[in-house]
């Protein structure tokens, strides 16, 4: 039962009124009206179902406890306490509790599925728009970068205009990187899995990220557990995801800071963790980290982490974020074994 939004404030009074009315009628009839009494006894489920549906399993359970507390005196006052009566009353109260929890849980699951479907629909629409824009931007940017580089090569050494062309080339490269992120986000992932030795793979990935770390005066370290099993993954996509995490960690770290790449086996999963000692991620920011175009940086598309999240899910894994005590953040890319 769904009320219009302007009537949501009436939900609690309605539920309490139902409980009070059913309880009053139940006690008023007493055991003499056996058929009517059984009928009203089933009506107790109505406020329990409404509570679970509107407010979730825990409120449904609380309402079931309230109803059970009101139902128990009826059993004591108007019935002779015989073993069958006690058994029936206990069974009825257990049903109250089970219905409150079950309805609330089913409603929560339905809401989660609805939210997931809406998110998928929104992401599909965003992906189509982003793909269109990025595709239109790609060719002009490549032309700008290419022609600018040609002009720069033909200039006399030490020309005062050379620096301006370097700025154009640098900013064009940055825009090309943003376009690549948008295209990576919008395109469906096609994985080409192969067996990866994580020791070797991590070393090659650290080499790619070393240039940015050197620019920011940040030290890269690695701590990989010995004897890690081979992982079935797409090396290009996985390296793209790890480099994204490493670059984010480097950019968040102070000068002379440290960024670490760790790996270990966790049951039937392998965890690749990137940690830094930057300002960390606040609880408010964590709610939006994987939302496309959400970013706390002055420069960036806000698609880096959504792309990593997409890569993790495509491999059947997940991306987690936590605190790196005493300061900083840690992002864990968790991949299943045996895929």
Number of strands: 7
**What best-fitting shape do the alpha-carbon axes yield?**
elongated
Backbone structural class: alpha+beta
* Biggest sheet layout: 5 strands, mixed
Tally of contiguous helical segments: 10
Strand content: 5-15%
Kindly state the percentage of residues in helix: 55-70%
What is the average of the pLDDT values?
80
Neighbour order of strands in the largest sheet: 2-4-5-7-6
Radius of gyration, in angstroms, nearest whole number: 30 Å
Number of domains: 2
Query: Runs with pLDDT <50, length 5+?
Result: none
N- to C-terminal separation? 43 Å
Spell out the blueprint of helices and strands.
Layout: H1 11-29, H2 34-43, H3 45-55, H4 57-78, H5 83-154, H6 162-186, E1 194-196, H7 198-215, E2 219-224, E3 231-233, H8 235-252, E4 258-266, E5 269-275, H9 283-286, H10 304-314, E6 318-323, E7 329-336
Parallel strand pairs: 2-4
Antiparallel strand pairs: 1-3, 4-5, 5-7, 6-7
Helix pairs in contact: 1-2, 1-3, 1-4, 3-4, 3-5, 4-5, 5-6, 7-8, 8-10
What does this structure look like?
The protein is of the alpha+beta class and 339 residues long. It folds into two domains: 1-187, no CATH class; 194-336, Heat Shock Protein 90. The chain has helices at 11-29, 34-43, 45-55, 57-78, 83-154, 162-186, 198-215, 235-252, 283-286, 304-314, and strands at residues 194-196, 219-224, 231-233, 258-266, 269-275, 318-323, 329-336. The protein has a five-stranded mixed sheet. A two-stranded antiparallel sheet has the order 1-3. Helix 3 (45-55) runs parallel beside helix 5 (83-154) and helix 8 (235-252) runs antiparallel to helix 10 (304-314). It starts with 10 loop residues before the first helix and ends with a strand.
């Amino acid at each position: 039962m769904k009320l219009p939004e302007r009537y949501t404030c009436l939900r609690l009074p309605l539920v309490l009124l139902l409980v009070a009315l059913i309880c009053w009628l139940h006690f008023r009839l007493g055991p003499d009206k056996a058929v009517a009494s059984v009928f009203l006894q089933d009506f107790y489920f109505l406020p329990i179902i409404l509570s679970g549906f509107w407010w979730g399993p825990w409120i449904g359970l609380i309402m079931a406890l309230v109803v059970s507390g009101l139902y128990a005196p009826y059993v004591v006052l108007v019935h002779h306490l015989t073993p069958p009566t006690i058994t029936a009353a206990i069974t009825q109260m257990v049903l109250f509790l089970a219905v409150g929890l079950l309805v609330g849980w089913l409603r929560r699951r339905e809401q989660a599925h609805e939210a997931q479907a809406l998110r998928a629909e929104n992401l599909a629409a965003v992906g189509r728009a982003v793909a269109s824009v990025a595709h239109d931007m790609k060719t002009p940017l490549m032309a700008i970068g290419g022609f600018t580089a040609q002009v720069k090569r033909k200039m006399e050494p030490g020309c005062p205009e050379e620096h301006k062309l370097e700025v154009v080339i640098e900013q064009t490269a940055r825009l090309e990187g943003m376009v690549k992120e948008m295209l990576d986000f919008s395109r469906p992932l096609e994985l080409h899995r192969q067996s990866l030795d994580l020791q070797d793979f991590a070393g090659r990935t650290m080499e790619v990220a070393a240039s940015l770390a050197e620019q920011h005066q940040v030290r890269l370290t690695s701590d990989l557990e010995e004897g890690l099993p081979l992982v079935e993954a797409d090396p290009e996509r996985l390296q793209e995801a790890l480099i994204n995490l490493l670059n984010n960690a480097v950019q968040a770290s102070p000068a002379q800071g440290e960024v670490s790449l760790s790996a270990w086996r966790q049951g039937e999963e392998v965890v690749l963790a990137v940690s830094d000692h930057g300002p960390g991620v606040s609880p408010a920011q964590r709610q939006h980290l994987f939302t496309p175009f959400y970013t706390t940086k002055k420069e960036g598309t806000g698609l880096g982490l959504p792309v990593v999240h997409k890569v993790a899910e495509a491999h059947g894994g997940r991306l987690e974020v936590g605190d790196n005590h005493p300061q900083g953040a840690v992002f864990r890319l968790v991949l299943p074994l045996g895929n």
